[in-house]
Design brief:
Layout lengths: L4 H21 L9 H25 L8 H10 L1 H20 L7 H16 L12 H33 L6 H14 L1 H21 L4 H6 L1 H36 L4 H28 L7
Length: 294
């Protein structure tokens, strides 16, 4: 358990910030009231814990021994601390906007997308994306930010479609199944763009850090990256299964005589894809602690 603890906090931070950004970006179906506010509060709590843990590690002190001067130095005098402060301020600014019971739309939604995107993008300073200077370092950082936002969009879309698939169908079975089919069908093009963006930015960052086929197989970082890529490959395989088989089968079931099997199959496949996405984020949490060249 002690060996897993350094990775649990980054995993929680990645997951909650990606869910927050992604579910605001993909606002349909509507979440139960208070869910986004709860996610923001959890993200704020995890963010504070992450900042305290990082400062404690840097100074070699227990959290109880950290005073205000140390915290001020970390939050305003180091890149990681400044990114953490920006993250916390963005999350705090979201709280009053999420407290409204009104539908998530208009300028309020735009502001929430920008704030949640800022909080998610700030995680780039926690990893290898910020390890560079000059123009090359800026390009690497931009690639890292785009990679994070694309991943958040993918996680949010998957969560939204899974919500549609798992909700009780009841008397409106055909109508709700049609909504699920529409959501899955419409995500085909955006999903392809998001996956292509993730592939390009991820490859660029790895090569820019000095990665090669040799480091991919001969280092701990490379082996974890291969595991991550295998999991991503599994997600892509399931996505292809959705697009070319399960979603068309669902459409056929809706148009013709109703059959429960296509809906059940899509539910199971989406659940498996969600588990794979969680495992990918776990790999990312580990990769952030490893040197790409060793």
């Amino acid at each position: 358990m002690a060996e897993l603890s350094p990775y649990a906090l980054p995993l929680a931070l990645y997951l909650v910030l990606m869910l927050l950004f992604g579910r605001i970006l993909f606002a349909r179906p509507v979440l139960p009231r208070g869910v986004l506010l709860a996610l923001a509060l959890i993200a704020l709590l995890v963010g504070v814990t992450d900042a305290v843990t990082r400062l404690s590690s840097v100074l070699g002190l227990s959290p109880a021994d950290i005073d205000l001067d140390m915290a001020r130095w970390f939050l305003t005098g180091t890149p990681v601390g400044e990114a953490g402060l920006l993250r916390l301020l963005a999350l705090l600014a979201m709280l009053p906007l999420l407290a409204f019971a009104a539908p998530l739309q208009g300028l309020r939604r735009v502001a929430l997308v920008a704030l949640s995107g800022t909080a998610l993008a700030s995680l780039s300073w926690n990893g290898h994306a910020a390890a560079g200077d000059g123009f090359g370092g800026t390009l690497r950082l931009v690639a890292g930010i785009v990679h994070l936002l694309a991943a958040g969009a993918l996680v949010g879309a998957l969560a939204a479609i899974l919500q549609l698939a798992l909700r009780p169908q009841g008397l409106r079975l055909r109508e709700r199944t049609h909504e699920l089919w529409q959501a899955a069908h419409r995500f085909a093009l955006p999903g392809t763009i998001i996956v292509a963006t993730l592939a390009m930015t991820g490859t660029y960052t790895y090569v820019d850090l000095g990665g090669s086929l040799q480091t991919l197989t001969g280092t701990a970082h490379g082996r974890w990256l291969l595991l991550k890529l295998a999991l991503v490959g599994g997600m892509l395989g399931l996505a292809a299964l959705h697009r070319w088989r399960l979603v068309p089968a669902l459409a056929t079931s809706i148009r013709g005589g109703w059959q429960p099997r296509p809906l059940r199959s899509l539910r199971h496949s989406l659940a498996c894809e969600s588990v794979l996405a969680l495992l990918v984020l776990a790999c990312v949490a580990v990769l952030g602690t490893l040197d790409p060249l060793t």
